[in-house]
Amino acid sequence: MTPKVAAAAPAWQDWRLPVDAAQQPDLAAAPDGSLLLSWIEGDTDTQHLRFARWRDGRWSAPKSIVVDGGIGNVADMPHVRQTADGALWATWLRRIGEGHARDLVLARSVDDGRTWSAPQSVNLDGTATEHGFASLWPEGRDAIGIAWLDGRETGEHAMHGMQAGATMLRTAVFDARLSRRDEKAIDTVTCDCCQTDVAAVDGAPLLVYRDRLPGEVRDIALLRRDAAGWSAPRQLHADGWAIEACPVNGPAIAARGRDVAVAWYTMHSTRPMVRYAASRDGGMRFDAPVELAAGEQVLGRVDVARDAKGTWVLWLEEDAQGQALQLARVANGAAHPDATRTLARLVGRGRGTGWPRLVSAGDGLHAVWTDVIDGVPHLRGRQLH
After folding, report:
1. Do you know which InterPro entries this protein is assigned to (predicted)?
2. DSSP assignment of 98-118, as one string?
3. Which residues contact 372 (CB under 8 A, 6 or more apart)?
4. Which end of the chain, N or C, is less packed with Cβ atoms under 10 Å?
5. Do 40 and 90 contact (CB within 8 A), yes or no?
6. Contact predicate 195/178, CB 8 Å
7. What sign does the dihedral 253-254-260-264 (CA atoms) show?
8. How many CB atoms lie under 10 A from the CB of residue 101?
9. Cα–Cα distance for residue pair 200/198, rounded to 1 Å
10. How far apart, in whole angstroms, are the C-alpha atoms of residue 108 and residue 116?
11. What is the pLDDT along the chain (385 residues), one digit of tens a residue?
12. What's phi and psi for 153, nearest 5 deg?
């Protein structure tokens, strides 16, 4: 009888990127299966937002979107997305004064990024407060939906004499002329600076973010939109993490058909951990969460992707030897990961390494991240065909 041979671990390969000295990468799949990689070159005072497309095993020449100061930071990177009509959409931050205040802006390109429209402010409140941490999704063929964290109530408003309030989650839709509609607040009290994320399920957005509940509980919440509008926020799981500050560590979501996966960072009794939960009915119900990693070494900064075989979760850890990019795979129908591995070891430490990105596309899985070597940020990538 021939003995069984254990299946070999998937063979990840280095993925050569179109830029080296850069930071704050974002990666997204386009409707045709190509990938859009955006990044920032330069320092805080003069930042250059650029992007390139991966198609048929090669990169396009990088193109410029904007040059300005303070258009992104290690936790709140710009985004580039494509709608079915071929238009590209880009978001970034626009500095207000000398402090941390930022507006969120949106621009559109109809010639594959060679030229861009004048940037349109997403938030129109006119307050010198923080806005950002956006998520975008297609609205039909030629419009884009956007959700963002909005700090308009967090400063003192001279015109109303109001004192500081809470960060809120707002959403709007922009058409091909950059005209807005359906702007509204969908949660009026949220965590201040954790990333949001969105997945399209049955053509409608399913949005995850870190909420802010009584007692300063900062657990993950989910909002879905249907023909009746946005649902009320509901907790994905009652972690009960009470913290009197924003942990700057948002959730990630991915969907394939009606199979949905969410991953997030939390703490329980001062024990950091990464959790994952799955839904098979488009996000209506989720299985009990699975703990993928726990311990003082866990930094979080998660991303998640789904392919035909299951779910992949990416996160960062840091110990005495340095930072490591960890990857877990949960096969379809499985309750727990069937493989966890170190995808890469980093030279950099601390928050400067930013947030890694993971995307499933037609030609496989792709991961990008920032490493910091001798004080200089560099982009790195790996792929699995």
Report:
1. Sialidase_sf
2. SSS-EEEEEEEESSTTSS-PP
3. 346, 347, 348, 349, 352, 353, 378
4. N
5. no
6. no
7. negative
8. 18
9. 7
10. 6
11. 444 444 456 689 999 999 999 999 999 999 999 999 999 999 878 999 999 999 999 999 999 999 999 999 999 999 999 999 999 999 999 999 878 899 999 999 999 999 999 999 999 999 999 999 999 999 999 999 999 999 999 986 433 444 468 999 999 999 999 999 999 999 999 999 999 999 999 999 999 999 999 999 999 999 999 989 999 999 999 999 999 999 999 999 999 999 999 999 999 888 999 999 999 999 999 999 999 999 999 999 999 999 999 999 999 999 999 999 999 999 988 889 988 999 999 999 999 999 999 999 988 999 999 999 999 999 999 999 8
12. -95, 5
Amino acid identity, residue 37? L
Residue 106 to residues 80, 142, 238, 279, 315, Cα–Cα distance (Å): 10, 14, 34, 32, 28
- Tokens standing for residue 33: 């299966």
